[in-house]
Amino acid sequence: MESETIINILLAGIVVSKTIIVILAYLLVKKNSVLKAEKIKLEKANAELVKQSLAIRKYVEELKAAENFKTKVLSIASHDLRAPFASIESLLKFEDLLLMGRRELEAFFETLRQEVGKSRVMLDEVLLWTESQLRDTIENKAVLNLNVEIGKLLNQFSYDIEKQGKKVFNNIDQNSNLNINKPIFTFVIRNVISNAIKYGRPEGVISVDYIKKESGECCVIISNESEELAEHTIKNLNYGKSWERRKMANSEGTGLGISLCKDLFKRIGGIIHFENKIGKGIAVTIIFPNDACEMASCC
């Protein structure tokens, strides 16, 4: 009788234990389901936070870019845009005009014409650069004959070239073409030529060459006889923010400089590289995007 009672108690204990285990297992599964649901919610919340973080980072970068853009525009306006107008203002002083003879007046109006031309070109360049900064893409490509286009640009500087006694050689083959946005091409080449004239030696030589490599890459090289630049200046021109660089001593002209060229040329995949040529001067290599070289070859 006692053993039977013990067996019944053990059986009851087993049943109760199993029931408790089943209940605990049910509660565990239920809790696990709740935890999974919470985990999914947390993952969604985390993904949303990551998304918002990326959006905030993007906004911050856009704000920095906008601030950088504003600084550049203000820098140009405060230095480069005001300089030609100050020169024109000084030239137009009435009392000075009254003292001039015929030859002096002719020289005066030629100088005035040069200043007005520089101001107009500079304003066009600033507007082009500003437009490029505000647009996502730059299109409107055209096939250009390099020899002809560079010849036109050199003619724009004929007065300065003759005045300084420089010799300029356009060594580009007459059959060399390039498929590129013409205003950007003109903007970049004109500024590099302008710098070569301004900073080159009096009565020095400026040469313009074109190279097309087997890899499909093509470039225009503008070399001028001048003093070599310091290594840190070359490094800054090639890799730094050149628009923040102080102007070279005794520089004249509009001076928009390589800064805007680099910004604008980069938008279409181009590169501008400066190099000292020992015993000769400075060479500026203007490397065009491959598609500009390839598409020109097939047109």
Structure description:
- By secondary structure, the chain is of the alpha+beta class.
- The chain has a domain at 140-297: Histidine kinase-like ATPase, C-terminal domain (Heat Shock Protein 90, 2-Layer Sandwich), CATH 3.30.565.10.
- The chain is 63% helix and 15% strand.
- It is built from ten helices and seven strands.
- The strands form two sheets. Strands 2-4-5-7-6 form a five-stranded mixed β-sheet.
- Helix 2 (82-91) packs antiparallel against helix 4, helix 4 runs parallel beside helix 9 and helix 5 (146-156) packs across helix 7 (182-199).
- The protein is elongated and about 140 Å long.
- The chain starts with a helix and ends with a helix.
- Mean pLDDT is 78; it is low at 242-255.
Give a quick set of tags describing it.
299 residues, alpha+beta, Heat Shock Protein 90, 5-stranded mixed sheet, two-stranded antiparallel sheet, 15% strand, elongated
Roughly how much helix do the residues carry, as a percent range? 55-70%
Instruction: Give, in order, the helices and strands.
Output: HHHHEHHEEHEEHHEEH
Report the strand count.
Answer: 7
> Mean of residue pLDDT?
78
Set out the fold topology.
Blueprint: H1 2-80, H2 82-91, H3 94-98, H4 102-134, E1 141-145, H5 146-156, H6 158-163, E2 167-170, E3 177-181, H7 182-199, E4 205-212, E5 218-225, H8 231-239, H9 257-266, E6 271-277, E7 281-288, H10 290-297
Parallel strand pairs: 2-4
Antiparallel strand pairs: 1-3, 4-5, 5-7, 6-7
